[in-house]
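Field: COMPLEX_INPUT
Field: COMPONENT_COUNT = two
Field: RESIDUE_TOTAL = 612
Field: MODE = joint
Values follow.
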Amino acid sequence: MLFGLLACVATAGRSQNTTIAERLGYPADAKLLIIHADDLGLAHSQNMASISGLETSPVNSASIMVPCPWFPEIAAYARNNNSADLGLHLTLTSEWKHYKWGPVSSRDSVQSLVNENGYFYSAVDSLGMYGSAKEVEFELRSQVKKAYQFGIDVTHLDAHMGAAVSTPDYTAAYMKVAKEFDLPVLMDSRINNLDHPGVKSLLADGPVIVDQIHTALPPDFEKGMAQYYTAVFRGLNPGLNCLLIHLAYDDEEMKAVTIDHPAWGAAWRQADYDFFTSPECAEILAEENIVLLTWRELRDKITRAK
Amino acid sequence: MLFGLLACVATAGRSQNTTIAERLGYPADAKLLIIHADDLGLAHSQNMASISGLETSPVNSASIMVPCPWFPEIAAYARNNNSADLGLHLTLTSEWKHYKWGPVSSRDSVQSLVNENGYFYSAVDSLGMYGSAKEVEFELRSQVKKAYQFGIDVTHLDAHMGAAVSTPDYTAAYMKVAKEFDLPVLMDSRINNLDHPGVKSLLADGPVIVDQIHTALPPDFEKGMAQYYTAVFRGLNPGLNCLLIHLAYDDEEMKAVTIDHPAWGAAWRQADYDFFTSPECAEILAEENIVLLTWRELRDKITRAK
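Field: COMPLEX_OUTPUT
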């Protein structure tokens, strides 16, 4: 019954001048939040902690790295849990020291995206030096196709380390691939400043644009994750917000994956897990009247409701 | 001094009718044994347990799976430990349920070796149905080249799951690649029965041939690994023996890698680790006058001493 009502309101308010909140039937000043776990498929530890977060905490959305070794494990979970809000964390880098992956496409077709060892570059800047936008587009499309081939009901796309939005040409490719599969993509209002014909023409469609993306940075981790996330929740502005987090256990596997890199390391991911599965997290969200929203709703009520 | 003596004896006894033991300067009835850990690079757990085995137990040789996700970790170890006896566990299958890898070569150049998901086949029989020997040879060569590119002083080649020796054509490719890099390959006397011109011509070189390969099978695991390995040591025949083992910890990562497959599973690998690092293992080897030999010795004193 509620669903029907919201659908009607959404249909009535389809104008591009109406906010996402209003298009979904919420008051204009509603504080909407997607709590989004990144990097699924990266490691077994990441998969297990993220699944636990999705099933037992306010974490309500996540995205999967298709080129990574543990992709088949999370794909099996996605097939068996059709309603989970799982998108793709489109990946163009392989940033860890001793644990590597490369493209989903055959390497000969995306040679500008790989280093001499056949892996993706470690750094976004290296990709930007050599990666052709045409090959970026080809690889992003290959990742989406492979996810569908594995039976995942993809709810959205986003960009691991921002690599797929690190140049205007890549961003146009990212938006183009999303459009082909009728999927929302994570981007915020900075997209409106991009003077690129491919981007401009896709923006004319009125895609979902997030008002504010929040994510912890190294100084936040140093001060304590509970303090950072509490401040995000207490200070959340009305509109569509997306909070990017990373859930994994501080175990031997994850310590080895993230070796020599404390930022976004195993302890960082465990701290995220600990906060989001704590009773305090749910309590603060309730106190602040924060409405949790998924990419699935955005996909089905906005992107595909045309 | 001893080294000089052995080298002289080896030179003197180079005839193909002389045993490996005699060529190395041991009595003809010496019981030579390589204790060889397989599957390095497969997982972090496998790397850590194998390194521990190599450094603290009679395990004296191992081989690395170049296409696997944790290859860069064990390659870094190999670069920092030049005297370790590390060969390549040439890999043409990706047999686990939720954790996958594909070829080192660009996929377009070895299409007959991969399934629709871009990974190696799970089973040796699937490879045998579709895999062209020409592409097997290309991929084996790519794996050796990549190992050298990572700075590994490769001591020998062997075949993961026997895939690279599962047909006469593949076996000829395997021996040909070994010859190109002047490396010994693991094979036993069954090789002499292979009626294949490529194999016959390479056998004419008088390569190292192991007299007996030992490895635990599921009934051995069920009865207890200590019992099996003790029986192998007590009953070891004179000649060149190679014992293939698998060292890993029975931890969350390894349990997930080997899920739904108790044979060669995480508990199996922990049982191997426990036996080989026990005081009993070293004691029985000493009691039986077993001489531990490495592939490095075979490479440098026989294969390359021409």
